Amino acid sequence: MAMVSKSRLCIRVWILKSSTNISRRQMVHEMKAIVPHLVRFICFVPIAQLAFAAYRNSLGPDPADALATGTGEWALRFLILSLCVTPFRKIFGLAVIAPFRRTFGLVALLYASIHVLVYVAFLLQFRWSEIFEDVLERPYISVGFISFCILIILGITSPKWVVRRLGRKWKLVHTAVYPASILAIIHLLWILRADVAEALFYAMILLPILGYRVVLYIARTH
Amino acid sequence: MLIKAAPDISSSEITPESVYLGRRKFMSGGVGLALGAAAGGFSSLAFAADGDGLRAAAPSDLVRSAPAQWWEDKFRSISPVEPGSAFSTDETLTPYSDVVSYNNFYEFGVEKGDPIANSGAFEVDPWSVTIEGEVDKPGIYNLEDILKPHDLQERIYRLRCVERWSMVIPWVGFPLADLIKQFQPNSKAKYVQFFTLFEPSQMPGQRSRFGTITWPYREGLRIDEAVHPLTFLAVGVYGNYLPPQNGAPIRLVVPWKYGFKSIKSIVKIRFTETEPETSWNMLAPTEYGFYANVNPEVHHPRWRQDMETRLPQSLFSASRTQTELFNGYGEQVASLYSGMDLKKFY
Q: CA of B212: which chain A residue's CA is closest?
């Protein structure tokens, strides 16, 4: 997918450069059209880096663990990034960034899926009984798993026709993104017991977003 | 109190590294080559051709210079480990590059790569160790004086981390029992407690405002565990000086317990009558007990303990191995715990 958007981007740029009788307005329009592709392309940089490092065997002596950590961290980052979109759009009046909420959310799901796949395939090598036991008995894995399940539901309900079909219910379903993020941060917090700085960093970003949502909700209902 | 100063050394007195290195039989670059190569592709075992050489030496391009002249003198003769003895294993060694770059040493940061990245300027000379508590010869001693009566020897031990990974590491040092004899603990000494250096200016992890460990890091052993022949004080690894990230200049190695018991960069040893505080137990008593013996049947709340990943790994290798009770040292240490419920005293 990364390659597709990159090649499309190249073609557009090439067309822009090569055509001489293009108007300025058209050009600005074309440039604007490139932005979403560019953003999508950037979203794939971390996974490309991780994959390249895995290919070169430069992830250290425990590559599966490094890959699980890396994809998990990026899943959380994109999840929080998707939550930042709406407050930014409303506060700064940036209507153009609206579609990125969906982009970042889906990218978060993608990274979370790879994270879970690495855990199942590389760390536990498909020993399902052990995986089930982990999910049921190890609280830090339980909360991570619940968060992942929520993200899957959000992903399934994100195509435009599903959004239309769900109507008003869609918004309600997608408030689940907040518990998903909180659980993801708890998941991180319980892994790193000795220093809570990283988990706290994400919590400090999430907190004002949550506050903003609560304020909006109160303003709307009163 | 006995306080001795380490002698000053002029740089001209220091033996060039090449002279020191010339003494040793090196393996033919296997470890160095294995650096970027697929795991398991190269054997990192090195066998000395004569009785004088060590079984394992660091690759020549990765060896460290001595912290001071006396360290070089100390490392001039190291008795190699006897193959086939309980102090050795013929399992494949974890390559030097992995041993010195994949570390848990939270004083230098919580990520595995943090200790090597943040400890480059760590000062290990001069170094003194305080001996206190139930002991006939308490005092603050220079490390040089502490090491003086002890000949260095090689040990090849398995190291099992509670996080479910393990390594095989050739240490250089001497038995803790010898040091304990040196300072003559009295009859009230039932336990030994160890403390890591507390120096936030040198250890960034200790400066973190969000750390949950109570510094300084501390660990402890029952006195019979401490004088067990397997219990080792390491001052070197792979025939070379201990790098800071591995616990320079002196660290504990207790091979039948989880790695966090093997405390690093020791500055204080205290003999006590009652069970001493240990850092991880203070932080999470339900997760970490005082004994922390490797036990495949007692699971940590966050990690099953019946299997382990022997490092290094590649992504598609399925080399998880069964964890053994007491990390495979049961024959030597099981008698220490006869009659004890290991599920209760985890």
A: A194
